[in-house]
Design goal:
Layout lengths: L2 H31 L3 H18 L2 H8 L11 H40 L11 E6 L4 E7 L5 H6 L1 H8 L2 E8 L4 E7 L7 E2 L10 E6 L4 E5 L6 E4 L6 H15 L4 E6 L15 E4 L5 H21 L5 H5 L2 H4 L3 H6 L6 E6 L2 H4 L7 H21 L1 E7 L9 H4 L4 E5 L4 H8 L13 E6 L2 E6 L1 E2 L2 H12 L15 H12 L5
Parallel strand pairs: 5-16, 8-12, 8-13, 9-10, 9-11, 11-12
Antiparallel strand pairs: 1-2, 2-4, 3-4, 6-7, 13-14, 14-15
Helix pairs in contact: 1-4, 2-4, 4-6, 7-16, 8-13
Length: 493
């Protein structure tokens, strides 16, 4: 071996050792940036060691183990000893994190061999970094190994089985040739309770959580929702907790609830101020026409007050001085929600009513979803028939957020999400995919049982509400129409 080769090898070894040593401090820096609780406990330990040395409690330890003659005298050797003792646990944290990632990278190559992620030239995706996130979740960054995201998704079950992890999502950074994988060693929660419901203000509500964080819906940011999935997945429970959260925290809010499945889901809510229930499809068109009239009236009022949207009015001193009753009666004093349970009944042609009637409903819904955001008029559609005809295409294009529970067929999943993700959801009540823009996140939606919802609403509105849904039919058509006109009629301030 030539001298030049020997020198090059020594340089390479030196560079590698420097990298390994430097990685310790990189891990320390990352730990500080993410406020790692383990590093925090390490810092507490270093502080305790510093206090022990400061008050010379360590002298007793040295004497106890017969090493007193090795105790450093005052001066530079004592300072070196004190700093070394204090930095040791912090340094060991960095060493442990570095070694953990080196071991992980080594095992990763074996996993890629097992799952078939070996490209045509015989190389594997290359490990880059492993970053702990909150809640015991990790983010793994690696090269894509010339495999597109679809191939990674296809091998997701095998990756989970061989790595003994639960993968939340796989994202691609195509311009850099990278794959980002978010995973956890713990499974997703199977039940999430809705706690501290009165903490949600400004028309916000709890949508659910994954392993990393909680997701809060904000109607000022995402004004319209689609709730889809098979029967029993959790749609009704989601609508219940959303409605309860909004009405308890914003009692001035107005709700038009359309229950087209038999009239039982919303019947018990008719006593609540600002709530109208429509159970007969023959009254849907007139109800939506009234909402459209309200929408146009709000646009005129906002223009006359020089506001761009209703959110600006909510920040005005005029609004701040209003009582709940005044907000409820004022055209701009509240947000209005149109909630339709089983929306396919109003969008599909040939369901017992004339085509012109369906076209009118579709036109009204399209206008409300297009113009409703600025005016504070929101649409929430729920369906257990998630095919391409269940929701009008123009309406669907304006639905900014989707909560999709399990769907057993690829066609339904594609119609709702544009992907087959809903088919892969486990059969767990409340498990759903939250889709907002290009983001799709698997979440566990919150559960608020019927009795809790009734109790909260009864306390808020000082009413005696039934503890069970009513089983008798809805009001007759005349009573229902009169009730609707009374509660939903636009008010001019």
């Amino acid at each position: 071996m030539s001298d030049t080769q020997t020198i090059n090898q020594r340089v390479e070894i030196l560079v590698q050792n420097l990298k390994n040593f430097g990685q310790i401090f990189i891990e320390l820096g990352r730990g500080f940036l993410r406020r790692d609780p383990i590093l925090f406990r390490t810092l507490v330990g270093a502080t305790v060691i510093g206090l022990i040395i400061t008050f010379r409690l360590d002298v007793w330890i040295f004497k106890k183990i017969n090493l007193w003659h090795y105790y450093p005298p005052d001066g530079k050797w004592f300072k070196f000893y004190a700093l070394s003792m204090m930095w040791t646990p912090i340094f060991l944290y960095g060493v442990a994190m570095r070694n953990k990632k080196k071991e992980f990278a080594k095992n990763l190559k074996e996993v890629f061999e097992l799952v078939g992620l070996k490209n045509a030239i015989g190389s594997y995706p290359k490990f880059i970094s492993l970053i702990p996130l909150s809640g015991g979740t990790m983010k793994l960054l690696m090269t894509n190994g010339s495999f597109p995201k679809s191939e990674w998704e296809k091998r997701k079950p095998k990756l989970e089985a061989n790595m003994r992890i639960f993968i939340d999502e796989i994202n691609e950074v195509p311009e850099k040739g990278l794959i980002e994988m978010t995973f956890s060693y713990e499974p997703m929660p199977t039940k999430v309770s809705l706690e501290d419901i009165r903490s949600y203000r400004d028309y916000k509500f709890f949508m659910g959580r994954d392993r990393i964080k909680s997701y809060v819906g904000d109607f000022s940011e995402n004004p319209h929702f689609l709730i889809a999935g098979e029967s029993g997945g959790g749609k009704s429970a989601f609508l219940r907790q959303m409605f309860t959260t909004i009405k308890v925290n914003q009692p001035e809010s107005q709700f038009l609830l359309m229950d087209l499945k038999a009239g039982l889901e919303f019947e018990h809510l008719k006593k609540i101020p600002g709530v109208t229930v429509i159970c007969d499809i023959q009254h849907v068109a007139s109800a939506l026409q009234n909402i459209v009239a309200t929408l146009h009236l709000r646009i005129q009022n906002l223009k006359s007050k020089n506001y761009n949207d209703i959110k600006q009015f909510f920040q005005s001193s005029e609004y701040q001085r209003m009582t709940v009753e005044e907000k409820r009666d004022h055209t701009l004093g509240h947000r209005t929600f149109v909630v339709v349970d089983e929306c396919a009944e109003i969008f599909l042609f040939g369901l017992g009513h004339k085509p012109e009637y369906t076209r009118e409903i579709r036109a009204c819904m399209s206008k409300i979803t297009r113009l409703g955001r600025a005016c504070g008029v929101h649409v929430v559609l729920a369906t257990q028939r998630p095919d391409k005809n269940a929701v009008d295409p123009q309406v669907k294009s304006n639905l900014t957020s989707t909560i999709c529970y399990r769907i057993h067929d690829i066609g339904g999943s594609l119609a709702v999400l544009g992907s087959g993700r809903a088919m892969d959801l486990p059969k767990i009540a409340g498990r759903a995919v939250l889709a907002q823009g290009s983001q799709e996140v698997e979440i566990q939606t919150p559960f608020l049982d019927f009795a809790q919802s009734q109790r909260l609403l009864a306390e808020t509105f000082k009413l005696s509400l039934d503890l069970e849904p009513l089983n008798h039919g809805s009001l007759n058509s005349t009573q229902e129409a009169n009730h609707y006109e009374k509660t939903m009629e636009p008010h001019i301030p």
